[in-house]
Amino acid sequence: MNEKVKRFVEGFLIDTFQRDLISWFEKEQRDLPWRKDTDPYKIWVSEVMLQQTRVETVIPYFHHFMEQFPTLEALADADEEKVLKAWEGLGYYSRIRNLHAAVKEVKERYGGKVPNRVEEFSKLKGVGPYTTGAVLSIAYGIPEPAVDGNVMRVLSRIFLVWDDITKAGTRKLFEGIVREIIDEENPSYFNQALMELGALICIPRNPACLLCPVQAHCRAFHEGVQGELPVKTKKTNVREMPIVAAVVQNECGKVLIHKRDSEGLLANLWEFPNCEVVHSRENPKTQLEIFLKEEYGVTVQLEQPFAALEHVFSHLIWNIVVYYGKIVSDIVETERLKLVDEHEISEYAFPVSHQRIWHEYKEKGTGG
DNA sequence: AATCCGTGGCC
DNA sequence: TGGCCAAGGAT
């Protein structure tokens, strides 16, 4: 065992801790839709949805997703547009592209059975160390650490770990600790219980230590420093980007939409035509008209703006001004540039800001 | 190692 | 109101 891990675990009452933690989980765990059974496919989908995403947000998506794609094969065979549409609004869209590719891989290479070995499962797209441990322990009872933000917070307090959890190497330290204290008989409940404790009791601010089932094991509580842990140094620096967009219709009332690039921000989602505004140049309206002519070969006539909105990402802010517009020229439709009827808009997956654009547009009328 | 990649809720 | 936060992974 790693020397550093050994120092943290020394003198820790592993058996008692496991009992206190798991018996609490058996009594207090929430009734969640992905806890009905241990179907590896369902566990996997839930874990991908839960990456950086709250339980309350995931629940309705999970229900809908399982109705549409009840089995791994159903998802593997599903149309890409429908899969993306089922993810609309969940964020981090590369997750679903990777999951779809990974599920196809499982169907082809493993006969549709989710592999139960670390070396195989962890190689699948979108599957990192956390997801590997979570799926293999919960679905197959394999004693692998599943170290997420909850677990790092809980363990940093219990073992008084002052290492910065925003550093890449710190997760490995916690994996080492978990390997020493995990319940080999019930790794599923052990891992879930650590996360559940982090979600219900050992929360970031004002943890409910007086209700904590493992209070007696917690070194931070013993020293009264639980509020100072975990240590996170990194601060978010967001930049702002002005965007000019337009809802453009032709004389038949069809709406111009564009599919974003397959990589990067909001990959493969649809959007209303837009571009970044460059300062010290023509006005935004003219910039977008030029952009659409040069990039899409479409001549449009933009009129007045009807909405201004903000789209806040984790690392970026779009300040969007939206214009009414009409198509002047002919248009060559492609895979990524389409004219669609208004009632077809709902079949395409848009980022939230563009959903709002459409909502505003319908509310204020198609005037121009 | 440092950045990029969504969204909504909270205090 | 705005910064922080949430069951991470890819590059």
From TrEMBL:
What does the record give as EC number?
3.2.2.31
* Cofactor: binding comment: Binds 1 [4Fe-4S] cluster.
> So what does this thing catalyse?
Hydrolyzes free adenine bases from 7,8-dihydro-8-oxoguanine:adenine mismatched double-stranded DNA, leaving an apurinic site
- EC top class named in words: hydrolase
Classify the source by domain of life. Bacteria
- Give the family per the record: Belongs to the Nth/MutY family.
Function field? Base excision repair (BER) glycosylase that initiates repair of A:oxoG to C:G by removing the inappropriately paired adenine base from the DNA backbone, generating an abasic site product. 8-oxoguanine (oxoG) is a genotoxic DNA lesion resulting from oxidation of guanine; this residue is misread by replicative DNA polymerases, that insert adenine instead of cytosine opposite the oxidized damaged base. Shows a powerful dicrimination of A versus C, since it does not cleave cytosine in oxoG:C pairs. Adenine glycosylase active on G-A mispairs.
- Specify the protein name: Adenine DNA glycosylase
**Naturally occurring in which organism (per UniProt):** Thermaerobacillus caldiproteolyticus
